[in-house]
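Recap from last week: sequence in, structure out.
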Amino acid sequence: MSEILIQRHGMVWLEDTNLNENKLKHSFSTRIGGVSYFPKEDLNLSYRAEENQKNVRTNLIRWTHALGIPWENLVVGEQVHGSQAAVVTMEDFGRGAFTSNEAINGVDALITREKGVPLMAFFADCVPVILFDAKRGVLGLVHAGWKGIVQKNTEKAVRSMESLGARSSSMQVYIGPSIGKNHFMVGPEVQSAFQDAGFAKWIDVIDGDIYIDLQRCMLQSLLSIGVKEENITVSSYDTWEEETLFFSYRREGSQTGRMAAIAMMS
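Predicted structure tokens:
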């Protein structure tokens, strides 16, 4: 499985070739091609990251137009670093598209069985996960920060998708760009949380500093519930290292912008 970098209409984004083969509209944005200033003409897509809401709306319209997705129908979760998922329908159109206050409360995962429902989530180091069972028509999108990972939020999202008829063994998955293991340094409390969650294999201690490989933890989670490794694409991009392409909370602090992942069955 592999990902490709798309350049169109002055913007740059990533797509997964396997999801493309399954006719899923999807994208992971970069910071290139917007009107925000983080510090220059950046594509910030989150209202929460910027005071100038007009700039964010302009960015959203530009990006979704390039993708062929109606921006006014976007559905967004609140993203509270938890493990809850919401089943989304056309009745949720626009929740989070016009303002962050209208996003679906308390959830970090969105699931739908309906075609034409665009799911969107924001990122600046956390792990994006797109889950798609093309045969049964069930789509999921997960925002997985470290707290969500240790709470097994993606595993829970898969189980919720299975309750709608999906099968983990049939899912195609894209684990998108996130902070790499060489830059996600944590303290002992976070180390303990990952050990307790069964991810000790992906913890490295180097000269007394503790590092965790979030993408490998996510891969382990997916494999443990029956997703086939050959159906999983793991991004080769590190949001911390690729400063020209991505925002990074760890690198730039709380004032940085946000990329987004989007997915829609068409």
